Amino acid sequence: MANVILKPEWHVPEKEITPVKDYFSRRDFVKTMGLGVGLASVGSVQAGAQAKLFPARRNPKYNPKIALTNKQWATGYNNFYEFTTSKEYVRFLVGKFKTNPWQVEVSGLCNKPFKFDAHEMMQKIGLEERVYRFRCVEAWSMIVPWTGYQLNKLLKMAEPKNDAKYVKFYTAMKPKEMPGLARLPSYPWPYTEGLRIDEAMHQLTFMATGIYGEAMPKQNGAPLRLVVPWKYGYKSIKSIVKIEFTNKQPDTLWNSLAPKEYPFESNVNPAVPHPRWSQASERMIGPNPIRVKTVKYNGYSQVAGLYK
């Protein structure tokens, strides 16, 4: 793009970022996030007819013996630039965002393109719960119990053609419901992301519809978002409205804005620093954050064969 790029908040060295404890007093922040059906539920999807789908049975194959991130932090500390660049305030700005009904289009290089309602598809495929590590490019992380289904179950319904080499995903673009879009007019909206088709078909790649045994909160990407646990978090696109099979590597938002800083592949790798900071360690968020060493592929070594 020829115009000036508006830098996201993580285009600042981590040491210069204002700590959360200074942004809010810790006591007030934790109190605010602990109001349960009060502020913590702002932006949550109404259970309604989906109640019987949640909680889903946890898949023992994806159930590492590690402590989960506190729910209030995982639902109250989110990057969703379509609403705001402030992680702590996303949940206060999603009230007008309508997520039911929600239509998704599957198209491109496939034999059976189709459209589906996100909520109906949950019932058709069935849901399971998986505990995944989540690593943000900003060097913070979470441990989250996601509810959803394996993405390849959905993609196979479209019967992708042999020349389909990539899968492109599109986020909703609703200016009247997403106030952050107007604040960042130079960004190439809508938000887009992409995977190679073998990455998209991998058993770890997950279409998430909920967290912590409940339907997905709006600030976390309701009603369905991608979760690719071995890649940096911006690859796990939120609030998906379109999935497209293509034979060329798709343009994606962050890769278009800053390709040297946000490469298309974006696998978690502690040996490859971001141009502005090290990726050798990460801050696990919560009331008492701790710093731990980052592991290649975020610990999901079973994907290594994809990159030989």
What would your notes on this structure say?
Helix content is 14%, strand content 21%. The chain has 8 helices and 12 strands. The strands form 2 sheets. Strands 3, 4, 7, 8, 9, 11 and 12 form a 7-stranded mixed beta sheet that branches. The longest helix is centred in the first third of the chain and has 8 residues, at 26-33.
Quick gist of this model?
This protein is an alpha+beta fold and 308 residues long. It has helices at residues 20-23, 26-33, 71-74, 118-125, 151-155, 180-183, 197-200, 253-257; strands at 103-108, 114-117, 128-135, 140-150, 166-171, 192-196, 206-211, 214-215, 225-227, 240-246, 281-284, 290-293. Strands 3, 4, 7, 8, 9, 11 and 12 form a 7-stranded mixed beta sheet that branches. A 5-stranded mixed beta sheet has the order 2-1-10-5-6.
CATH class identity: Alpha Beta
- The CATH architecture classification is Alpha-Beta Complex
Sheet-strand content, in percent, reads 15-25%
Helix count equals 8
Please report the distance between the alpha carbons of the first and last residues. 33 Å
Q: H/E series, N to C?
A: HHHEEHEEHEHEHEEEEHEE
Structural domain tally: 1
CATH topology: Sulfite Oxidase, Chain A, domain 2
Counting helices, strands and paired strands, the structural category is alpha+beta
User: How confident overall, as mean pLDDT?
Assistant: 88
CATH superfamily: Oxidoreductase, molybdopterin-binding domain
The rounded Rg comes to 18 Å
Major sheet attributes = 7 strands, mixed
